Protein backbone atom coordinates (compact mmCIF):
# COMPACT_ATOMS: atom_id res chain seq x y z
CA UNK A 1 0.00 0.00 0.00
CA UNK A 2 2.84 2.37 0.90
CA UNK A 3 4.58 1.49 -2.38
CA UNK A 4 1.34 2.36 -4.24
CA UNK A 5 1.09 5.77 -2.54
CA UNK A 6 4.68 6.52 -3.49
CA UNK A 7 3.97 6.10 -7.21
CA UNK A 8 0.79 8.30 -7.17
CA UNK A 9 1.78 11.90 -7.91
CA UNK A 10 0.85 14.53 -5.32
CA UNK A 11 -1.01 16.45 -8.03
CA UNK A 12 -3.54 13.61 -8.15
CA UNK A 13 -4.71 14.38 -4.60
CA UNK A 14 -4.91 18.06 -5.38
CA UNK A 15 -7.11 17.22 -8.38
CA UNK A 16 -9.51 15.25 -6.18
CA UNK A 17 -9.70 18.07 -3.67
CA UNK A 18 -10.32 20.64 -6.37
CA UNK A 19 -12.98 18.42 -7.97
CA UNK A 20 -14.83 18.00 -4.66
CA UNK A 21 -14.67 21.73 -4.05
CA UNK A 22 -16.04 22.40 -7.52
CA UNK A 23 -18.91 19.94 -7.00
CA UNK A 24 -19.77 21.62 -3.71
CA UNK A 25 -19.75 25.00 -5.40
CA UNK A 26 -22.02 23.74 -8.19
CA UNK A 27 -24.49 22.30 -5.68
CA UNK A 28 -24.56 25.56 -3.76
CA UNK A 29 -25.07 27.58 -6.95
CA UNK A 30 -27.95 25.34 -8.02
CA UNK A 31 -29.50 25.58 -4.57
CA UNK A 32 -29.29 29.39 -4.59
CA UNK A 33 -30.81 29.52 -8.07
CA UNK A 34 -33.72 27.35 -6.94
CA UNK A 35 -34.30 29.50 -3.88
CA UNK A 36 -34.26 32.63 -6.02
CA UNK A 37 -36.95 31.18 -8.29
CA UNK A 38 -39.11 30.31 -5.30
CA UNK A 39 -38.70 33.77 -3.80
CA UNK A 40 -39.59 35.43 -7.11
CA UNK A 41 -42.64 33.20 -7.59
CA UNK A 42 -43.79 33.94 -4.05
CA UNK A 43 -43.21 37.66 -4.50
CA UNK A 44 -45.24 37.73 -7.72
CA UNK A 45 -48.21 35.89 -6.20
CA UNK A 46 -51.51 35.56 -8.06
CA UNK A 47 -51.74 37.56 -11.28
CA UNK A 48 -54.51 40.14 -11.47
CA UNK A 49 -57.25 39.78 -14.09
CA UNK A 50 -60.29 41.97 -14.75
CA UNK A 51 -63.30 39.78 -15.55
CA UNK A 52 -66.60 41.06 -16.92
CA UNK A 53 -70.03 39.61 -17.65
CA UNK A 54 -73.59 40.81 -18.16
CA UNK A 55 -76.48 39.72 -15.92
CA UNK A 56 -78.10 36.65 -17.45
CA UNK A 57 -79.64 34.60 -14.67
CA UNK A 58 -78.98 31.92 -13.62
CA UNK A 59 -75.59 32.04 -15.42
CA UNK A 60 -74.68 35.55 -14.21
CA UNK A 61 -76.70 37.38 -11.54
CA UNK A 62 -76.25 39.91 -8.75
CA UNK A 63 -78.98 38.08 -6.84
CA UNK A 64 -77.38 34.64 -6.76
CA UNK A 65 -74.56 33.02 -4.79
CA UNK A 66 -71.13 33.88 -6.25
CA UNK A 67 -72.88 36.07 -8.84
CA UNK A 68 -74.35 33.12 -10.72
CA UNK A 69 -73.58 29.62 -11.97
CA UNK A 70 -71.09 30.36 -14.77
CA UNK A 71 -69.49 33.24 -12.89
CA UNK A 72 -68.84 30.95 -9.92
CA UNK A 73 -67.20 28.31 -12.12
CA UNK A 74 -65.05 30.84 -14.01
CA UNK A 75 -63.82 32.68 -10.93
CA UNK A 76 -62.99 29.42 -9.12
CA UNK A 77 -61.05 28.07 -12.11
CA UNK A 78 -59.06 31.31 -12.44
CA UNK A 79 -58.13 31.28 -8.74
CA UNK A 80 -57.00 27.68 -9.05
CA UNK A 81 -54.82 28.74 -11.99
CA UNK A 82 -53.09 31.26 -9.67
CA UNK A 83 -54.92 34.35 -10.89
CA UNK A 84 -56.58 37.04 -8.80
CA UNK A 85 -59.80 37.80 -10.72
CA UNK A 86 -61.95 40.87 -10.09
CA UNK A 87 -65.49 40.78 -11.46
CA UNK A 88 -67.18 43.81 -13.03
CA UNK A 89 -70.77 43.35 -14.20
CA UNK A 90 -71.83 45.38 -17.25
CA UNK A 91 -75.00 45.44 -19.30
CA UNK A 92 -74.91 43.56 -22.58
CA UNK A 93 -73.17 44.23 -24.99
CA UNK A 94 -70.83 46.57 -23.05
CA UNK A 95 -69.10 43.55 -21.51
CA UNK A 96 -68.35 42.16 -24.98
CA UNK A 97 -67.29 45.53 -26.39
CA UNK A 98 -65.06 46.23 -23.39
CA UNK A 99 -63.30 42.87 -23.66
CA UNK A 100 -62.75 43.33 -27.39
CA UNK A 101 -61.18 46.73 -26.73
CA UNK A 102 -58.93 45.38 -23.98
CA UNK A 103 -60.72 47.27 -21.21
CA UNK A 104 -61.38 43.87 -19.58
CA UNK A 105 -59.17 40.79 -19.73
CA UNK A 106 -61.89 38.14 -19.79
CA UNK A 107 -65.59 37.90 -20.52
CA UNK A 108 -66.99 35.10 -18.38
CA UNK A 109 -70.10 33.99 -20.25
CA UNK A 110 -70.37 34.04 -24.03
CA UNK A 111 -70.88 31.69 -26.95
CA UNK A 112 -68.49 31.28 -29.86
CA UNK A 113 -68.91 32.90 -33.27
CA UNK A 114 -66.34 33.32 -36.03
CA UNK A 115 -66.81 37.07 -35.91
CA UNK A 116 -66.11 37.25 -32.17
CA UNK A 117 -63.08 34.96 -32.52
CA UNK A 118 -61.26 37.72 -34.40
CA UNK A 119 -60.96 39.66 -31.13
CA UNK A 120 -61.33 36.94 -28.50
CA UNK A 121 -59.67 33.64 -27.65
CA UNK A 122 -62.26 31.14 -26.39
CA UNK A 123 -62.03 28.56 -23.63
CA UNK A 124 -63.29 25.00 -23.71
CA UNK A 125 -67.06 24.64 -23.06
CA UNK A 126 -68.27 25.50 -19.57
CA UNK A 127 -71.91 24.46 -19.87
CA UNK A 128 -74.35 23.61 -22.65
CA UNK A 129 -77.36 25.87 -23.20
CA UNK A 130 -80.55 25.25 -25.13
CA UNK A 131 -82.34 28.01 -27.04
CA UNK A 132 -86.04 27.54 -27.70
CA UNK A 133 -89.12 29.33 -28.97
CA UNK A 134 -91.45 30.53 -26.21
CA UNK A 135 -95.15 31.25 -26.80
CA UNK A 136 -98.17 32.06 -24.67
CA UNK A 137 -100.17 29.04 -23.49
CA UNK A 138 -103.32 30.41 -25.10
CA UNK A 139 -101.55 30.60 -28.48
CA UNK A 140 -101.90 27.47 -30.62
CA UNK A 141 -98.65 28.07 -32.55
CA UNK A 142 -97.12 24.72 -33.47
CA UNK A 143 -95.41 25.40 -36.78
CA UNK A 144 -92.14 27.31 -36.40
CA UNK A 145 -90.89 26.73 -39.94
CA UNK A 146 -89.25 29.70 -41.74
CA UNK A 147 -92.39 30.35 -43.80
CA UNK A 148 -94.57 30.48 -40.69
CA UNK A 149 -92.16 32.75 -38.85
CA UNK A 150 -92.35 35.32 -41.65
CA UNK A 151 -95.86 36.29 -40.58
CA UNK A 152 -95.14 36.29 -36.83
CA UNK A 153 -93.88 38.98 -34.49
CA UNK A 154 -90.65 37.39 -33.25
CA UNK A 155 -89.02 38.89 -30.17
CA UNK A 156 -85.27 38.71 -29.56
CA UNK A 157 -82.68 40.49 -27.43
CA UNK A 158 -80.62 43.22 -29.08
CA UNK A 159 -77.12 42.18 -30.27
CA UNK A 160 -77.45 38.49 -29.35
CA UNK A 161 -75.90 36.31 -32.08
CA UNK A 162 -79.22 35.18 -33.56
CA UNK A 163 -77.94 35.02 -37.13
CA UNK A 164 -75.43 32.27 -36.39
CA UNK A 165 -76.10 28.61 -37.17
CA UNK A 166 -79.69 27.56 -36.48
CA UNK A 167 -80.72 31.22 -36.12
CA UNK A 168 -80.50 31.74 -39.87
CA UNK A 169 -84.17 30.72 -40.22
CA UNK A 170 -85.40 33.71 -38.22
CA UNK A 171 -87.26 36.35 -40.23
CA UNK A 172 -85.43 39.44 -41.44
CA UNK A 173 -87.52 41.74 -39.23
CA UNK A 174 -87.19 41.03 -35.54
CA UNK A 175 -88.70 42.92 -32.61
CA UNK A 176 -85.68 43.67 -30.44
CA UNK A 177 -85.62 44.15 -26.68
CA UNK A 178 -82.73 45.33 -24.54
CA UNK A 179 -83.07 42.50 -22.00
CA UNK A 180 -84.57 39.02 -21.64
CA UNK A 181 -86.95 40.45 -19.03
CA UNK A 182 -88.27 43.00 -21.53
CA UNK A 183 -88.64 40.28 -24.16
CA UNK A 184 -90.62 38.05 -21.79
CA UNK A 185 -92.87 40.95 -20.72
CA UNK A 186 -93.71 41.69 -24.35
CA UNK A 187 -94.65 38.04 -24.81
CA UNK A 188 -96.88 38.02 -21.71
CA UNK A 189 -98.51 41.30 -22.79
CA UNK A 190 -99.22 39.96 -26.29
CA UNK A 191 -96.93 42.49 -28.02
CA UNK A 192 -95.08 39.65 -29.77
CA UNK A 193 -96.27 36.22 -30.93
CA UNK A 194 -93.15 34.24 -30.13
CA UNK A 195 -89.88 34.84 -28.27
CA UNK A 196 -86.43 33.37 -28.70
CA UNK A 197 -84.77 32.57 -25.37
CA UNK A 198 -82.39 30.30 -23.53
CA UNK A 199 -84.62 27.83 -21.67
CA UNK A 200 -82.93 28.21 -18.26
CA UNK A 201 -82.83 32.00 -18.52
CA UNK A 202 -86.48 32.28 -19.59
CA UNK A 203 -87.67 30.07 -16.73
CA UNK A 204 -85.61 32.00 -14.18
CA UNK A 205 -86.77 35.43 -15.39
CA UNK A 206 -90.43 34.42 -15.57
CA UNK A 207 -90.37 32.84 -12.11
CA UNK A 208 -88.37 35.67 -10.51
CA UNK A 209 -89.78 38.77 -12.22
CA UNK A 210 -93.28 37.64 -13.14
CA UNK A 211 -94.57 35.35 -10.35
CA UNK A 212 -97.27 32.97 -11.51
CA UNK A 213 -96.50 33.55 -15.18
CA UNK A 214 -95.13 30.07 -15.86
CA UNK A 215 -98.70 28.87 -16.39
CA UNK A 216 -99.08 31.45 -19.13
CA UNK A 217 -96.23 30.25 -21.35
CA UNK A 218 -94.95 27.10 -23.00
CA UNK A 219 -91.94 26.09 -25.06
CA UNK A 220 -92.51 24.76 -28.56
CA UNK A 221 -91.32 21.18 -29.24
CA UNK A 222 -87.65 20.68 -29.97
CA UNK A 223 -84.95 23.30 -29.71
CA UNK A 224 -83.83 26.11 -31.95
CA UNK A 225 -80.20 25.63 -31.02
CA UNK A 226 -77.95 23.92 -28.50
CA UNK A 227 -74.71 25.74 -27.84
CA UNK A 228 -71.90 26.00 -25.29
CA UNK A 229 -71.19 28.90 -23.00
CA UNK A 230 -67.49 29.69 -22.74
CA UNK A 231 -65.11 32.22 -21.25
CA UNK A 232 -63.05 34.32 -23.67
CA UNK A 233 -59.86 36.35 -23.31
CA UNK A 234 -59.12 39.57 -25.16
CA UNK A 235 -56.55 39.01 -27.92
CA UNK A 236 -55.06 42.36 -26.94
CA UNK A 237 -53.35 40.53 -24.08
CA UNK A 238 -50.04 39.04 -25.26
CA UNK A 239 -50.51 36.14 -22.82
CA UNK A 240 -54.06 35.34 -23.95
CA UNK A 241 -53.16 31.79 -25.01
CA UNK A 242 -51.45 31.09 -21.67
CA UNK A 243 -54.48 32.34 -19.71
CA UNK A 244 -56.87 30.16 -21.72
CA UNK A 245 -54.63 27.09 -21.42
CA UNK A 246 -54.32 27.48 -17.65
CA UNK A 247 -58.05 28.16 -17.32
CA UNK A 248 -58.94 25.05 -19.33
CA UNK A 249 -56.61 22.92 -17.20
CA UNK A 250 -58.15 24.24 -13.96
CA UNK A 251 -61.68 23.73 -15.33
CA UNK A 252 -60.90 20.11 -16.19
CA UNK A 253 -59.52 19.54 -12.69
CA UNK A 254 -62.78 20.94 -11.27
CA UNK A 255 -64.71 18.41 -13.34
CA UNK A 256 -62.41 15.60 -12.23
CA UNK A 257 -62.55 16.35 -8.50
CA UNK A 258 -66.31 16.96 -8.31
CA UNK A 259 -66.22 20.74 -7.76
CA UNK A 260 -67.91 21.41 -11.10
CA UNK A 261 -70.83 19.05 -10.43
CA UNK A 262 -71.22 20.38 -6.89
CA UNK A 263 -71.60 23.90 -8.30
CA UNK A 264 -74.25 22.74 -10.78
CA UNK A 265 -76.12 20.99 -7.96
CA UNK A 266 -76.01 24.15 -5.87
CA UNK A 267 -77.91 25.97 -8.62
CA UNK A 268 -80.13 22.94 -9.33
CA UNK A 269 -78.89 22.76 -12.90
CA UNK A 270 -78.12 19.63 -14.90
CA UNK A 271 -75.03 19.51 -17.17
Itemize the secondary structure elements and their pairings.
Elements (H helix, E strand, L loop, with lengths): L1 H6 L2 H35 L2 E7 L15 H12 L2 E7 L4 H8 L4 E5 L9 E3 L4 E10 L9 H4 L4 E4 L17 E3 L2 H9 L5 E5 H11 L7 E3 L5 E10 L5 H18 L1 H8 L5
Parallel strand pairs: 1-2, 1-3, 6-7, 6-8
Antiparallel strand pairs: 3-10, 4-10, 5-8, 5-9, 5-10
Describe the structure.
The protein has 3 domains: 2-32; 47-127 and 228-266, Periplasmic binding protein-like II (D-Maltodextrin-Binding Protein, domain 2, 3-Layer(aba) Sandwich); 130-226, 3-Layer(aba) Sandwich (D-Maltodextrin-Binding Protein, domain 2). Helices cover 41% and strands 21% of the residues. It has 9 helices and 10 strands. It has helices at 2-7, 10-44, 69-80, 94-101, 146-149, 180-188, 199-209, 240-257, 259-266; strands at 47-53, 83-89, 106-110, 120-122, 127-136, 154-157, 175-177, 194-198, 217-219, 225-234. It is elongated.
Please tag this protein with its features.
elongated; alpha/beta; 9 helices; ten-stranded mixed sheet; 271 residues; 3 domains; 10 strands; D-Maltodextrin-Binding Protein, domain 2
Outline:
By secondary structure, this protein is an alpha/beta fold.
**Domains counted in the coordinates: how many?**
3
Compute the number of helices.
Answer: 9
Task: Give the beta-strand count.
Answer: 10
Helix content: 40-55%
Q: What is the CATH topology of the largest domain?
A: D-Maltodextrin-Binding Protein, domain 2
Q: How does the helix and strand content classify structurally?
A: alpha/beta
Poorly predicted residue ranges: 34-43
